[in-house]
Amino acid sequence: MEGQLPLNRVSAPLHKANAVLRARSRTHFVKDFAGPLSIKSVTEGSVDWKCEGRERLVDRDSFLVLNAGEPYSMAIDSRTPVSTLCVFFQDGFVESVQASMVRHELAPECQPLPFLGGLHSRDDRILPRMHAIAERGSSDRLWLDEP
Fold it and tell me: Which DSSP category does 49 fall into?
């Protein structure tokens, strides 16, 4: 499985590892979950995510970035299956990468970073990569980066 994250069970601790969650369902609900920094995308259908008191409709042409600890709810209630792909980042992972790029050190001290959260329309960097991960993925629902 070269080039793929190892597979793990759905109950894996999201804050402690990088994970990719692929799901396909007609119904699924999440209420007030404060997860890690994540990117939410939809490869088939659309999903309403609610964060910061606003509903954000995510479809194949958009993606949602949620900051660590930002509570969200989401609802799928559809006659046809909806497919999602979400990337969850281990606490401190992205900050560590950013710090090492800026300071050119292997293990620099990291400061929490605020990311440009919210709904983003189609772009040439993030969304094509999310779709490529979804198309290449295995039939298992969660990939988890483990040591």
Answer: E
Cβ density class 65-75: b for 16+ within 10 Å, e for less = bbbbebebebe
Task: Give the span between the Cα atoms of 5 and 146, in whole angstroms.
Answer: 8
Whether 12 shows a pLDDT value over 60: the answer reads no
Query: How far apart are the C-alpha atoms of 88 and 145, rounded to whole Å?
Result: 10
Q: Are 7 and 142 in contact (CB under 8 A)?
A: yes
Beta-bridge mates of residue 119: 64
Read off the tokens for 100.
């090492």
Q: What is the pLDDT of residues 101-119, one digit of tens each?
A: 777 666 656 666 666 678 8
Tokens of 57: 């409709």
Q: Please give the class, per CATH, of domain 15-138.
A: mainly beta
For the entire predicted model, the pTM comes to 0.78
